[in-house]
Amino acid sequence: MAAGATYEPIATNTLGSATASITFSSIPSTYTDLILICNGTNTAGGSTELLLRYNSDTGTNYSTVFMFGNGTTTSSQISGINTSVAAGQTDITKPTPVICHINNYSNSTTYKTSLVRASDSAGKVWASISLWRSTSAISTINIRPYSGNLSSGFTATIYGIAAA
Amino acid sequence: MPILGIIASSITGGLSTTAYESISTVTVGSGGTSAVTFSSIPSTYTHLQVRGIARSTGSSSMKLRINSDTGSNYSYHQLYGNGSTVSSNGYASFTTMYIANLPVAADGANLFDGFVIDILDYANTSKYKTFRSLNGFDANGSGYIALESDAWLNTSAVTTLEFTTSVGIAQYSSFALYGIKG
Q1: CB contact under 8 A, B111 and A111
Q2: Would you say residue B49 lies in a domain?
């Protein structure tokens, strides 16, 4: 079994001012998996979903099953958002770390899944799975909140993992 | 600094790209396969991680057997959501782990489960081994998301991982094994 170095940062963005979205484009297809890590708040005035869109596809080609606990109850739902991946919820004051695993993002034979773990420090622990019904390799990821803007200081980093 | 996907939010800088190494990868070919096996896993890492996508040719539960141990030495607990309810269950004295729930043909074409499995301290010979998994699949209107914890009640170092289903693992399923240095 040969081993080689892997797990590399591809790009990062820290917002200097409130911005509608962050886009990573021209993502190379040379890795096996992508990991997107975001952390920050929104300007919407409360909790709102963090959304991911792949390859600028604005069609109703996304679906998400999520579960969360809020300290009192647990819930699992099918997201009503079908034009983006629903990747946890962001808050206006407390940063929400989001880790999104996009396994086998560059193959051209399967639909793409996004595994998300998010922790809204205002009140939720979240896990979700999303489907993008496209066999295209993912080369662009757009990150935005459902409402409002991403706040100044919001960070997003994308890593690539290359398998042997 | 060890880099572990599920807890990678702790990354703050100074990333070492040599702490996380690819050991082996299996992509299932035409016709599927009965098992995906990683053997002769070196004991030179601190942790292992298995990442990938998988689909079954007819049975939804993906099993994992360690070091070919067929004894009743496995247990697991699961917290999962199916789009309407959150549930938890657990089982003991099983002869394999149940590590993920895979989509099958009835769930739709081109659907694959995504999974990230962490195997901490896998080479230690004084501890039972605990595995944890984040996995799930979405079938556009149904699906599931799960957090799982599995135990292998054995203190041996993990050297072999065998993934199976009752029927088979479908074409294009892909399993990548990584080692994480301490």
Answers
A1: yes
A2: yes
Chain A residues close to B24, C-beta within 8 Å: 1, 164
Q: What is the mean pLDDT of chain A?
A: 93
Confirm or reject contact between A159 and chain B (CB < 8 A): yes
Please report whether residue A1 resides in a domain: no
DSSP type of residue B20: E
User: Could you give the ipTM of this predicted complex?
Assistant: 0.94
In chain B, how long is the greatest CA-to-CA distance?
46
| pLDDT number for residue A122 | 65
Q: What's the maximum distance between 2 C-alpha atoms anywhere in chain A?
A: 52
Mutate which of B1, B47, B116, B140 to disrupt the A interface (most A C-beta within 10 Å)?
B140
CATH number, domain with residue B135: 2.60.120
For residue B78, give the H/E element and its range: strand B74-81
Is the pLDDT at B14 greater than 50? The verdict is: no
Q: What is the domain count for chain B? A: 1
Query: Is the pTM above the cut of 0.90?
Result: yes
